[in-house]
Amino acid sequence: MHLPTLLFILALLCVFSFWIGKRRALIIADGKHCNLHSLPGYYGYYASLWCAIPALVVLVFWTGFESSIITTLVSRELPVALQSLPSDRLNLVINDIQNLVSGNIVSGEIDPAMRAAADHYQHLQQISQAALTVVVLALAVLGLLLAYRQIHQAQRARNWVERVIMFFLISSSSIAVFTTIGIVLSVLFEAIRFFQAVPISDFLLGLKWSPQMAIREDQVGSSGVFGAIPLFAGTMLISFIAMLVAAPIGLMAAIYLSEYASKKMRNITKPLLEILAGIPTVVYGFFAALAVAPFIRDSGEWIGLDVSSESALAAGLVMGVMIIPFVSSLSDDVINAVPQAMRDGSYALGATHSETIRQVIIPAALPGIVGGMLLAVSRAIGETMIVVMAAGLSANLTANPLQAVTTVTVQMVTLLVGDQEFDSPKTLAAFALGLMLFVTTLVLNVIALYVVRKYREQYE
Amino acid sequence: MQFNTQVVSPVTPLMVCTDIELIAAHDNRKTVGKISVTNPRMRCRNVNVFYGDKQAINRVNLDIGRHEVIAMIGPSGCGKSTFLRCLNRMNDTIDSCRVTGEILLDDQDIYDKKLDVVPLRAQVGMVFQKPNPFPKSIYENVAYGPRIHGLVSSKSDLDVVVESSLCRAGLWDEVKDRLDQPGTGLSGGQQQRLCIARTIAVGPEVILMDEPCSALDPIATAKIEGLIDELREEYTIAIVTHSMQQAARVSQRTAYFHLGDLIEVGETNQIFTNPQHKLTEDYITGRFG
Between chains, do B202 and A458 touch, taking CB under 8 Å as contact? Predict the structure, then answer.
């Protein structure tokens, strides 16, 4: 039986279990809810969960391991000549067999041995499918029967059902956690491989970034120097410029929106501001590269400055505009959340509107505002597209915003785009950079949490 | 005079019955008692307050004398808090609110278009129902008012103002060692006394108190009531309260509000022992409220 059909039947069985479980509970209770420990519906869920969970668990594991088990069985049956092949060749043959089974194009000619193996594979697959159907349905029915027999008046069905639901919730939340752990570990292991080739001190303290490695011995000018400081300096420079734009503008916009704007004005302006956050970063990128960067270069030339056509300033300015909504939206929310009692208290002392905002509302909202700012910083550090297009690729170690710089994320992109060899330090450097970036953002988040908590302790 | 049909607050059927009975007893809701005092601090004449189309206060006339505590009592929604908030124009912060009539502070109309609300609120301070210290240190909470009004020129002057305000609010001994700690860390009663100290620091003439003890326990309430008694020597105090015992304990005059009307005003003793109006009598004997 096909998987969708099986799942459909299982679903039907579950619905039936729910109905029969509920009915059973009602019969036991003589139709009176008060004779039961839990509401009748819980007995239905009880039966339904008993029916579904064991069957689904088996289903998941079975489909998960099916193909590898069958493959092992098939390869064991292969002729000795094929079995003695080196493992990568053997994999190729097995791949061909699987392709034969699913009707895809095969790499070489089909010899009778392979055809036989494919038939064997198909046969095993059919057996497995049939067995799966039988086992799953049997388990479902068994579960139902078991649950049905267990339903009695004093049975604590609600507690049981709620505990099962809690486990679902726990497993859902752990998926996010495990994904994070998985990503960190995968980056970590690649980074460790990189640090085997390049000393960690060279990476962290080196002042020169030039990741081109020589592919042939006689190649010229490909030293492969991996000093990450220029990249982090570039990232910091651009993020700093971006925050210089976004923090004051965002905060003031938030103050206007929450304190001065009429309700109508606010309803129009706030969504408009938030549209800024919805513009794809690549669009910001070419806006920066085609409009802002040339403008800065031209106006720089006009006052006699030497500005490169790709500059940190252009990228930073546009990135600042992009993160305005982060700052303004979050700040607006926290300013609105400051209790009216605070405002009243200040007004009642004869404070003006602006005095109240400066001396009472902003201090009270500060933890939230700081949190919003740090979120915006994380966003700026992780931003790639704008910088690729507007700030250039040359890893200059400079504090001059009029020169081209590059950032961590941009270098990661250039290192990994295209056909790359995954055993050269050049490619692995991307993982080391990723790890550093991850650590940086993590530290920022920890600081943000610390700041928020500290102020909250004081002011609540 | 005709019975005023402009009853504004939502009325329960029970209350409607009471009103109908009262039409027999009193044909109108004209204020009973003596509204005026000689040489008043504040004088209110024909004060109406509207929230949008709803009228919350209906032609209230009342004088507030110097160095007296006047209590405003009445069932919830009767407009006593609204009236109190008119006295320092706190209702300005509510967009839909409109006030007509005349309210004089020392013969100056506080609703005069030319009058700046900032010095008015320095003269007429307010303490709220729930203690609302600012998220600042205890010192800064008290220093806030004198600073924004430029009342002090040096740090040492400010120290003096802060200390004397906290002393008069009866809080100095409890907080003198921790002036730099957040005001929000104090207990509820201490917070409310901090709010009173904050109000005193500006040097007001009148202090409005909107149910200042309703969020406090009996001991803290007793402290605040004692404080109100002492403050009367220097300030005029108008207090809204739900507790009739409190009104009887702290006030010299009492005003009874009902559904936006000022029903009766008089000496506190007389109001509680010998009310003239049927509604007042019903309220203080606990028939409704």
Answer: no
Contact A228, A204 (CB under 8 A): yes
Q: Do the Cβ atoms of A342 and B132 come within 8 Å?
A: yes
Amino acid at A151: I
Return the closest-CA partner of residue B196 out of B256, B274, B128, B289: B128
Place of tokens 């029916």: A51
SS3 B146: helix
Q: CB distance A458–B182 less than 8 Å? A: yes
How close does chain A come to B122, measured CA to CA in Å? Answer: 5
Arithmetic mean of pLDDT over chain B: 85
CATH class of A225-459: mainly alpha
Query: How many Å separate Cα A213 from the centre of its chain?
Result: 31
Tens of pLDDT, residues A63-119: 889 888 888 888 887 777 777 777 777 787 788 888 887 776 666 667 777 788 888
Give percent of chain B with pLDDT exceeding 70. Answer: 90
The arithmetic mean of pLDDT across residues A247-266, rounded, is 92
CB-based contacts of A455, cutoff 8 Å, min separation 6? A366, A367, A370
Give the residues across from B208 on adjacent strands: B126, B238
**A166 burial class (0-12, 13-18, 19+ CB within 10 angstroms)?**
exposed
- The answer on pLDDT for B10 being more than 50 is no
Please indicate whether, in this complex, the C-beta atoms of A349 and B90 are within 8 angstroms of each other: no
Residue of B121, B165, B180 to mutate, testing the A interface (most A Cβ within 10 Å of its Cβ): B121
Dihedral of CA B246/B250/B253/B255: which sign? negative
Where does the pLDDT of residue B157 fall: very low under 50, low under 70, confident under 90, or very high at 90 and above? very high
Residues of B near A (Cβ–Cβ under 8 Å) read 88, 90, 93, 117-122, 125-126, 128, 130, 132-136, 144-145, 148-149, 182, 184, 195, 198-199, 202
Distance, CA of A279 to CA of A275 (rounded, Å):
7
Q: Which of B126, B130, B135 sits opposite A348 (nearest CB)?
A: B126
Q: Domain residues of chain A, as ranges?
A: 3-155, 225-459
Percent of chain A with pLDDT over 90: 31
The rounded distance, in Å, linking the Cα atoms of A250 and A292 is 20
Would you give the DSSP letter of residue B137? B
The residue of chain A nearest to residue B208, with distances taken between CA atoms, is: A348
Over residues B87-142, the pLDDT tens digits come to 999 988 888 899 999 999 998 899 988 888 888 999 999 999 989 999 889 999 99
Nearest by CB to residue B132, choosing from A345, A352, A363, is: A345
pLDDT of residue A237: 92
Q: Give the HSE-up count for residue B101: Cα atoms under 13 Å, Cβ half-sphere.
A: 22
Residues with Cβ within 8 Å of residue B177, at least 6 apart in sequence: none
> Which pTM was predicted?
0.73
Whether B258 and B288 have beta carbons less than 8 Å apart is answered as no
Look at residues A371, A385, A381 and name the one whose alpha carbon lies nearest to residue A439.
A381
- What six digits make up the tokens of A44? 């239905």
Those residues whose C-beta lies under 8 Å from the C-beta of residue A49, and which sit 6 or more positions away, are A147, A161, A164
pLDDT given at position A114: 78
Ramachandran area for residue B258 (φ above 0: left; ψ -120 to 50: alpha; else beta): beta
Which residue in B124, B121, B72, B75 sits closest to B239, CA to CA?
B72
Q: pLDDT digits over A314-352, tens only?
A: 999 999 999 999 899 889 988 988 888 889 999 999 899
pLDDT score for B14:
42
State residue A455's pLDDT score.
65
Pair type for strands B206-210 and A209-213: unpaired
- Which DSSP letter does residue B195 get? H
